[in-house]
Specification:
Layout (H helix, E strand, L loop, with lengths): L2 H4 L9 E6 L9 E6 L6 E5 L7 E5 L6 E5 L7 E2 L8 E7 L2 E6 L3 E7 L2 E4 L17 E6 L2 E6 L3 E5 L4 E4 L7 E6 L5 E5 L4 E5 L2 E6 L9 E5 L2 E5 L4 E4 L4 E2 L3 E2 L2 E2 L5 E5 L2 E5 L4 E4 L4 E5 L5
Antiparallel strand pairs: 1-2, 3-4, 4-5, 5-6, 7-8, 8-9, 9-10, 11-12, 12-13, 13-14, 15-16, 16-17, 17-18, 19-20, 20-21, 21-22, 23-24, 25-26, 26-27, 27-28
């Protein structure tokens, strides 16, 4: 299907292609893919131990929250919340468990293969639907979890229940990061950045971007942030621009994740990894 043909379709009708790269195999013969139909506005995530099969997951914003596991065998299709229109904004893996961060104030936890359950009941009156909801979550532990979204909508889970936290702004919130330095970092409208915990927050950077950050994560003792056209680091004092390595800029943007000492970032045409010492290009641009 050409780009022109796809531009006339709804997202639900455009096939979703899932690519796999096997780094332990020779280049040129280490990629594979499969296509799924009906995956409206898909989001990508991972699932790890304690499940018997670790791998990727892709979830759709549709009536059932269709979710397809990938890796070590594919499928069968799972459903986050059948008939409930969960509309997952993000799949977040914390301590091996995958959480579907959904609109408006719903989080579902994958507790077994094919089984998702609502992770605590969080109130969301109808009059708040236009300004409440979750775009991201993160945790220090099972009894110290944060979720953010909506317009200044910040919540904390203490192991038994969720409580709404105070926040000094009603701008749209995008990401939350529970960092190894003990701080919680929240990013929001314009690319702005706040640091704090519970109901105490300080804005440390006022952004003027037209896009929200896609991801923000703690890696190599720094906060890394990526959007569709920016890739920057908060070094504790300022937002570095651009990200550099050995004095040279690193030209990449998009979405990222970090695990087991490796950061990975992917744009629409390039995938790169960083182990704290060396950048590697895993997928290079393809020129027809």
């Amino acid at each position: 299907m050409s780009y022109d043909e796809a531009s006339h379709l709804t997202d639900h009708d455009i096939p979703t292609r899932i690519m796999s790269v096997f780094l332990d195999m020779p280049e040129g013969n280490n990629c594979g893919f499969q296509e799924l139909g009906g995956m409206n506005l898909p989001v990508l995530g991972v699932s790890r131990a304690p499940f018997p099969r670790a791998g990727g997951m892709v979830a759709a914003k549709n009536r059932d929250g269709d979710t397809w596991p990938v890796g070590g065998g594919n499928g069968p299709m799972e459903h986050i919340a059948p008939g409930q229109h969960p509309f997952p904004n993000r799949l977040k893996c914390i301590n091996g468990f995958t959480y579907a961060v959904c609109y408006p104030r719903e989080i579902y936890k994958r507790i077994a293969v094919g089984k998702w359950e609502l992770f605590g009941a969080i109130p969301c009156p109808k009059q708040e639907l236009d300004r409440a909801g979750f775009n991201d979550m993160d945790a220090f532990s099972d009894s110290d979890i944060y979720a953010v979204g909506g317009h200044g909508d910040v919540w904390h889970f203490d192991g038994s229940q969720w409580r709404q936290m105070g926040f000094p702004s009603n701008v749209q919130l995008a990401t939350v990061t529970c960092a190894a330095d003990g701080n919680v970092y929240i990013s929001g409208e314009g690319g702005s950045l706040w640091i704090g915990r519970k109901s105490t927050w300080k804005r440390v950077y006022k952004g003027e971007s037209s896009l929200l950050w896609n991801d923000a994560l703690w890696f190599d003792n720094k906060l890394w942030l990526a959007s569709d056209y920016q890739f920057r680091i908060w070094n504790g004092k300022e937002l570095e621009q651009p990200v550099t390595h050995n004095g040279e800029p690193v030209f990449i943007n998009g979405h990222m994740d970090a695990y087991d000492g490796v950061l990975a970032i992917a744009s629409s045409s390039v995938v790169m990894t960083f182990d704290g010492n060396e950048w590697r290009t895993i997928v290079a641009p393809y020129f027809d």
